[in-house]
Amino acid sequence: MATWSMTAPVIWGIKGVMASVRRKNFGGNLLLQPASSYTPASEEEVLRILDGHSGERLRAVGGLHSWSEAPVADGVLLDLRRLNHVEMQQDAEGPVAVVGAGCRIKRLLEELDRQGGSTLPSLGLITQQTIAGAISTGTHGSGRNSMSHYVEGVRVARYDPATGKAIIEELNAGDGLRAARCSLGSLGIILTVRIRCRTQYDVEERFSEHRILADVLDAEASFPLQQFFLVPWRWSYVVQHRREGTGSRSRLAWLYRIYWLLVLDVGLHLLVLFFLRVMRSRRLIRLVFRRVVSLFVIRGWTVTDRSSSMLVMRHDLFRHIEIELFVRRPRLDDALHFAKEVLEVAGGVRSELSTDNQRRLGELGMQDDLAGLRGRYCHHYPICVRRVLPDDTLISMASGAGEDWYALSFISYGKPKDREGFFLFADFMARSMARLFEARPHWGKVCPLDAGELASLYPRFSDFRALCHRFDPDGVFRNRWTASLLDTETRDAASNRVEDA
Q1: Looking at residue 229, which CATH number applies to its domain?
Q2: Rounded Cα distance, 144 and 234, in Å
Q3: Tens digit of pLDDT for each residue in 440-497?
Q4: Domain boundary among 451, 478, 496
Q5: Could you tell me if 67 and 155 lie in one domain?
Q6: Three-class SS string for 106-132?
Q7: Do 391 and 421 lie in a common domain?
Q8: How many CA atoms lie within 13 Å of 186's alpha carbon, on the beta-carbon side?
Q9: Which single residue of 280, 282, 291, 326 has CA 20 to 30 Å from 495?
Q10: CA–CA distance, 482 with 463 (Å, rounded to integer)
Q11: In a domain, 308, yes or no
Q12: C-beta separation of 441 from 448 below 8 A
């Protein structure tokens, strides 16, 4: 039987918790204080919860590996961890998986391999997210579309506008599916995800270092899955050249995995944390990145191993916070040069931007914003750059036809109480790069732009709004942040532009 408070109804047979339960996200920047919380084990239990809390705000959460306000819940919280089934199916196009919304990516990969020797066509850097959380915020890897692009159906629990009762609807075509592929949790409670899979495969990888971006991008023709890092203060590019392997697994792949875990996933991060949190010296941080960090990377060692091992990292081992900005390929070079100069100003090693960038900033009227950032933040982690192919979605960061997108990831390992400088930097970068380069911030990471600024970056945002209003006319599946995005435009005007879901 569920536990309850005076404000929560008794819903028999469903695990619940008291209103005093508090939860923090992985980054430690969000605090969730729901009025009531449940961990349903079936779709029927989800429907009973919805009917028992009719008229209240409801929010589902996954692994809480988001830094944006997307998972914040102050009403009814549904933790879907018990909806974690995985069923493999086969159709004319190949393997497809039907996955419970709360299934973590790590478990999903294990089950796909065990049940049919399959895997996901796209993987993010970590595997602690749930499948529903990953697609709801546009999680992506490098060299392919985002995970959302491969979703072929989503079962959603919502309210029937005619009866007010909770119902389940499957979205598997048209704009309804495109919205569900990256929905910010605003269409209803995701129950299951049907996602296209592929036969298990290997990835070949090796490292190199370059000074010129053009040399890095030229290598994409031979290594379409590559990702690269702009090393701050050294300002060189360390590249993970990746492509599908054509041979067998390398004999020393096990040693490469140990190297990755001990040297890169753990050793490099401990070094960064030591100079950032213990020594607290900007001069030493810059020296370490100019002279030491590149020594952690073994160049020229070509290794082939299982894709699910090669395409992920253990970024979940150490608490951090992150902003990620997406720019189209023609803007990438300018965007990286701009980021480099802003980081140098923020780090106190230069007083102004270059003439061209200073002129651009003047046209935006943001000179005072840059002055307020000067000397306030010393960046201390490689800037990860990943290519994402265009998505068939309405609002994932790579949505829309045209050129490929590149995600620029800026990560801080500062303690929560020491993040003021990072937030100043993130706010400046999001606002300036959106206006200069039409950069889109990741929905699941620090996202400082207001509703108008965000909507202007997505040609079909009004269509997405209209679908959210159709599926959730009373806004019960929105939190304060998503409501600010979706309640700007009148429902009637928006609904006139939407295709049948």
Answers
A1: 3.30.70.2520
A2: 29
A3: 999 999 999 999 999 999 999 999 999 999 999 999 999 999 999 998 653 434 344 4
A4: 451
A5: no
A6: HHHHHHHHHHHCEECCCCCCCCCCEHH
A7: yes
A8: 29
A9: 326
A10: 15
A11: yes
A12: yes
Same domain assignment for residues 188 and 214: no
Does residue 213 share a domain with residue 180? Answer: no
Query: Could you count the other beta carbons within 10 Å of the beta carbon of residue 351?
Result: 10
In a domain, 478, yes or no: no
Structure tokens at 426: 């993130």
Residue 471 lies in a domain: no
First CA to last CA distance, the chain: 38
Beta-bridge partner residues of 244: 203
Question: Does 113 share its domain with 42?
Answer: no
Give mean pLDDT, residues 110-135.
Answer: 94
Query: Per-residue confidence at 24, pLDDT binned at 50, 70, 90?
Result: confident
Identify whether the C-beta of residue 322 lies closer than 8 Å to the C-beta of residue 126.
Answer: no
Domain stops at, among 160, 184, 200: 200
CA 387 to chain centre: 14
41 and 138 fall within a common domain:
no
Does residue 246 sit in the same domain as residue 386? yes
Task: Read off the tokens for 72.
Answer: 């914040």
Model confidence pLDDT, tens digit, residues 229-262 = 999 999 999 999 999 998 899 999 999 999 999 9
pLDDT tens digits, 336-380: 999 999 999 999 999 999 999 999 999 999 999 999 999 999 999
Question: How many separate domains does the chain show?
Answer: 3
Q: What is the pLDDT at residue 71? A: 85
pTM here?
0.91
For the chain, what is the radius of gyration of the CA atoms? Answer: 23
Q: Which residues contact 220 (CB under 8 A, 6 or more apart)?
A: 143, 226, 387
Q: Per residue in 289-312, pLDDT tens? A: 999 999 999 998 999 999 999 999
Quick one: average pLDDT of 398-420?
Answer: 94
Residue 129 and residue 46 in one domain: no
Provide CB contacts within 8 A for 38, sequence distance 6+: 2, 11, 14, 15, 16, 17, 45, 49, 76, 77, 78, 79
The answer to whether residue 332 sits within a structural domain is: yes
